[in-house]
Amino acid sequence: MEEPLSPRESGQFVAERSRDVLVDEDGVKRVAQMIYELRESEEFTASGWKKMNPLAPSPDSDDAINWVFVTDTMNFSFWPEKEEEQCEVTCRGNTYRGYMSLCAAVTRAMDEGVPITSPAYFSQISEAQLARVLRSDSATSMPMLKERHQALTEAGRVLMENGGSFRKFMSHCENDAERMVKYIVQNIPSYRDEATYEGKRISFYKRAQILVADVWGIMEARGEGNIPNLDHLTMFADYRVPQGLVYLGALRYSDALMKTLKNGELLSSGERREVEIRGCSIWCVERIRHHLWKLVEERDGKSCHINSALIDFYLWPYAKKHHKEMAHIPIHHTRCIYY
Fold first, then answer.
1. Residue whose C-alpha is closest to residue 197's, from 17, 3, 8, 2
2. Coiled coil where (predicted)?
3. DSSP code of 201?
4. How far is CA 22 from CA 259, 286, 330, in A?
5. 173: how many CB neighbours lie within 10 A of its CB?
């Protein structure tokens, strides 16, 4: 069986054939200019990672690497059936929703003495024990408990068979981003975020890539050297960043797709329109990065350190922060374990 295209190749392949989603080059250039003006800000540094993850253990602690493994392994499908019915988790005096409710639940469990970041523990955790860890402080439970339990215990067993920690599991990849993504995907089934489009096997690897980027964020914050080919990573194709890209004019949806999403129709994982949204989002950010690098080279006379992962790390909180202004642009809804 042929290997799937890489996420970057997949993005280009989909964007060149897409029917309902279009990458708008004028909008792309405007976003590149916007990021160019912010290029020296903390948002585009590793220290920005800790700001994005205020609930993560200190990067200096051994728990930090396993904490990101646990959260990234369960990092999927937080959108509520109804906007007013959200899962909420309170931790250290603050209440969180969405992905941050998962981070809060894991950190709350640690504060309560549950060894949730230990692979020996989470490889064998029962569904009832995980339900206790992920319990909601509102009337709405976190969705997909069964799938989160399966993903976490399966991943934990893989770690136990490979040295007993995520650090040991990844050790032979020698801080090579491409090898790290491939190794995670080959060994942990829930990270195999792939589809078939126009007869071609393609990949997005959203969670595998974000896991590598999170590990990089911790290493950078520790001053432990870096992952030199982090530019291999693309943006992390989810449901929040595409909404932001449409809002900023870099991505366009057809009238038919916009109508479908506004009607609240669920898109199934791997179907054409869902693949086009994710694939075109990847290619859109690649084009933003291309124009940004060009701007930095032409105006500053130097190379640019801002890669696609850092652009994603900027766009995701931007979309979250401006969610009221972009409420007229629907996010696409897909219940799956990949994002």
1. 17
2. none
3. E
4. 16, 14, 16
5. 17
Examine the pLDDT at 45 and tell me if it is beyond 80.
Answer: no
The single residue of 72, 238, 255, 312 carrying the catalytic annotation is 238
Average pLDDT for 71-82: 95
In tens, the pLDDT along 141-153 reads 999 999 999 999 9
| Non-local CB neighbours of 179 within 8 Å, separated by 6+ positions | 173
Residue 17 contacts residue 214 (beta carbons within 8 Å): no
Is a pLDDT exceeding 70 seen at residue 103?
A: yes
Query: Rg of the chain over CA atoms, in angstroms?
Result: 19
Which of 7, 4, 8 lies closest to 287, judged by CA? 8
What amino acid is encoded at 45 in this protein? T
Pairing of strands 200-203, 194-197: antiparallel
The DSSP result for 49-97, as a single string, is HHHH-TTSPPTTSTHHHHHHHHHHHT------SSTT----EEETTEEE-
Residue 238: active-site member: yes
How far is Cα 16 from Cα 3, in angstroms, rounded to an integer?
A: 20
Q: Name the DSSP class of 300.
A: I
The helix/strand/coil state of 22 is strand
Please choose, from the candidates 283, 296, 218, the residue with its C-alpha nearest in 3D space to the C-alpha of residue 47. 218
How far is residue 22's CA from residue 283's CA, in Å, rounded to a whole number?
Answer: 10
Rounded Cα–Cα distance for residues 178 and 190 (Å): 18
- Considering the chain, what is the average pLDDT of its residues? 94
The DSSP H or E segment spanning 194 is: strand 194-197
Q: Report which secondary-structure segment, H or E, holds 23.
A: strand 21-23
Distance of alpha carbon 168 from alpha carbon 46, whole angstroms: 23
Task: Establish how many alpha carbons lie within 13 A of residue 129's alpha carbon, considering only the half-sphere containing its beta carbon.
Answer: 13
How far apart are alpha carbons 120 and 161 in whole angstroms?
10
The answer to whether 87 and 101 are in contact (CB under 8 A) is: yes
